[in-house]
Design goal:
Elements (H helix, E strand, L loop, with lengths): L2 H26 L7 H23 L5 H7 L1 H5 L1
Helix pairs in contact: 1-2
């Protein structure tokens, strides 16, 4: 399993939780709350679909060598 996949898996869980909470608030605080039980699977599916590419795209930015290459760490020495 690659490092990027491991980081993306950890990020996915956090991003999924935040987006699910935002979707849940949107669902329950609008007139859509009448159909909340029917729309809940759609919220879960939509947040999963959005979280996957977000976590995959953010994963390389969390690697130490990315920052080392850009010189950020070198400037701190």
């Amino acid at each position: 399993m690659s490092i990027r996949l491991q980081i993306a898996a950890m990020l996915f869980m956090m991003i999924q939780a935040v987006l699910f909470f935002a979707g849940l608030l949107l669902l329950l605080l609008t007139p859509l709350s009448q159909e909340a039980m029917a729309l809940m699977p759609w919220v879960v599916g939509a947040t999963t679909v959005v979280s996957l590419p977000l976590s995959w795209g953010l994963a390389p930015r969390l690697r130490a060598r990315t920052w080392r290459r850009e010189g950020t760490i070198e400037a701190l020495k």
